[in-house]
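Continuing the batch. This is chain 6 of the set; chains 1 through 5 are on the previous pages. Same settings as before, nothing changed between runs. Recording input and output for traceability.
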Amino acid sequence: MFDDFILPGTPPVLFWTFVAIAILIQGISKSGFAGGAGVLSLPLMMLVMPVQKVAAMLLPLLILCDMNAIYHHRKNKDWRVIRSIYIPCIAGILLGAAVWWHIGQGDVQSYAPNLKKFVGAIAIVFVLYIVLREAAMEWVSRYRPGPKAAIAAGISAGFCSTIAHAAGPIVGLYIFAHGLGKSLFVGTVAWTFTLINLTKLPFYFAVGLIQTDVLALDLVLVPLIPIGSYLGKWMHHRVSETLFNRTIAVLTVLAALQLLFNLDVIGVVLQTITP
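Output for chain 6:
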């Protein structure tokens, strides 16, 4: 039923394992850790799925995660800050949707290598953000962003989010620079991403990314979201956030290098573990 989602040569067991881990990581990251561990999901799934299917399949699940987040932070939000970055985000979303539309008019597979390289490069930036997060936050806290910074951050975030669901560092650093405090910061980020992802949804339908087969796969994977959320809360008090984020960073780098340089890491692993 889901054969179109599996890259040729990928064993079904490996496909379902990678996809399940990717969705669980989203839930764990949002509920238990603030280091952006969800960055691993996209490159991990691109190792076993066509690139356009990955972006489409993730969006409805991300929106469900967002809804859970804003429920817990329904009172923690600063609409002034949200508006300042969300409004220019719309321009970035339109630009990203135009790119997906252009890709859809031609041979998607011919664009796949460049899309994988783009995601791999973004993943490396995410890893740097995870590793240098505290230093970056300290540097950003020294100034307050003005209208020009809001426009640049918004357009960049909207585009990266539409192409690869990869606006975390941009949105996080921009909102942190406003000095909101921990609870208000977390809630404002959650509300911002909820609006961004909801705005992307109709464009994903319009350019043909989300179709009935995508929604069918999402229905199969939905139960993993509360499981990941529970695991995140459980791990929060038992696993060092530093250790967790470093582990995610290493795995993300490995996945990103495969996407950037077209390395057959999975093939090598399969040859090693199978007779």
